[in-house]
């Protein structure tokens, strides 16, 4: 899965995105409109930018096609444009400062801080009541609803039931405690020729660290955006990730090899998010999912999960009719079609009605994955990455040394030191 990093980041001498949006007049930058290849109201219909690819993208395209084809929605037309993941936030940012944004964009809730001053409030038009509160609050800033959730997508621990059987393990006894996880991993390594585990690289390596650290009562950042992982717990977490590869040899050094082996049915367990159900279905082996509670000495184990939100960027070119169509599109995507986003794309829907619908609860997806994800949300065993400035920049300062450690180039102690220095420098440049 791509890391989600923007392919169009500002250089280190430039002001942060949020500050730049505050400093820059959208009207004054209208001359930049040609930079993004899209002029805000140049086409009929609601302009909708997404970053969904793979199975997610196919499902969202089917939803939009159904809206466009039907007479049920008063002739509403949506012009959906998929922007590649690595380019998405850079292009969205450029379109907003250039005065020619889409009518609707997708945004991870952790990115809200850099964009919140240039979003249309939908507090009165939509509100938070239709949605699960844990998800809805990710779009609320100072009491104003600036983004509408369509899901949360936490991590789980997927496992290959066929490898469990080959190793002599009970495939219906999930590895959902640190002790059971370690027992299973050792058994797979001893009794088969397969890897026991694979886990993410890049941004999601940093989120894996966040998950494990919160499970030990820690956190990555303080409220003042200082590194909070220079602790015994922080070092224990990084050592655990190191030892999965270099001491116990449960996981391969090269994450690409791990990904390929998993898809060939040659890895026992994998830490991944809700979206991964489309991957394992395509891979074709029998799988299970359980809670990713794998960190030893974790008193309060948690998963980690962000939310996809729908935003309406401010625009001088959007008239009242277009705004009403835009709001109706947000309502349809986040409510009317939200159960389909769950049972087809695999994400946990944000809409209360969708979550309790018979269509969702009776689906294979609910039984295979969503019931477990929902259980963690209901038990408050989920941590949302905080909305901060410089999200992409500070997470990169954490995942780069983690990836270097996996490659065998850094010790756990060096990862802590390098990551802490990088995070400090990132926020000092604000």
Automatic annotation (TrEMBL):
InterPro entries: Bact_solute-bd_prot1, SBP. This is ABC transporter substrate-binding protein. It comes from Natrialba asiatica (strain ATCC 700177 / DSM 12278 / JCM 9576 / FERM P-10747 / NBRC 102637 / 172P1).
């Amino acid at each position: 899965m791509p890391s989600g990093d923007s392919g169009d980041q500002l250089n280190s001498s430039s002001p942060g995105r949020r500050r730049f949006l505050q400093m820059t007049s959208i009207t004054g930058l209208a001359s930049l409109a040609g930079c993004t290849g899209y002029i805000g109201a140049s086409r009929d219909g609601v302009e909708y930018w997404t970053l969904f690819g793979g199975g997610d993208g196919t499902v969202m395209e089917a939803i939009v096609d159904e809206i466009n084809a039907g007479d049920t929605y008063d002739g509403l037309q949506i012009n959906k444009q998929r922007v590649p993941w690595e380019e998405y936030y850079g292009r969205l940012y450029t379109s907003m400062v250039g005065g020619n944004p889409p009518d609707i964009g997708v945004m991870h809730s952790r990115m809200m801080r850099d964009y919140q001053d240039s979003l249309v409030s939908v507090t009165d038009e939509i509100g938070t009541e239709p949605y699960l509160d844990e998800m809805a609050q990710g779009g609320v800033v100072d009491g104003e609803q600036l983004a509408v959730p369509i899901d949360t997508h936490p991590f789980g621990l997927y496992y290959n039931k066929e490898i469990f059987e080959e190793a002599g393990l009970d495939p219906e006894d999930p590895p959902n405690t640190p002790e059971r996880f370690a027992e299973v991993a050792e058994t797979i390594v001893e009794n088969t020729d397969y890897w026991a585990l694979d886990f993410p690289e890049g941004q999601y390596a940093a989120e894996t660290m966040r998950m494990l650290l919160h499970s030990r009562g820690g956190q990555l950042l303080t409220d003042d955006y200082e590194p909070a992982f220079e602790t015994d717990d922080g070092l224990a977490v990084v050592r655990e990730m190191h030892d999965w590869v270099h001491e116990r040899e449960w996981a391969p050094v090269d994450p690409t090899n791990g990904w390929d082996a998993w898809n060939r049915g040659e890895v026992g367990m994998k830490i991944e998010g809700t979206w991964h159900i489309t991957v394992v279905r395509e891979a074709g082996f029998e799988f299970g999912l359980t809670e990713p509670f794998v960190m030893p000495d974790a008193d309060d184990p948690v998963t980690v999960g962000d939310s996809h939100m729908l935003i309406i960027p401010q625009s001088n070119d959007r008239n009242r009719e277009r705004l009403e169509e835009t709001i109706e599109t947000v309502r349809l995507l986040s409510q009317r079609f939200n159960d389909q986003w769950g049972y087809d794309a695999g994400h946990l829907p944000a809409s209360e009605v969708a979550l309790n619908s018979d269509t969702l609860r009776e689906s294979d997806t609910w039984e295979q994955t969503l019931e477990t994800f929902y259980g963690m949300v209901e038990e408050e065993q989920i941590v949302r990455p905080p909305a901060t400035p410089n999200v992409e920049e500070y997470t990169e300062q954490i995942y780069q040394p983690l990836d270097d450690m996996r490659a065998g180039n850094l010790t756990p102690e060096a990862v802590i030191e390098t990551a802490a220095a990088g995070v400090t420098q990132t926020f000092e440049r604000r």
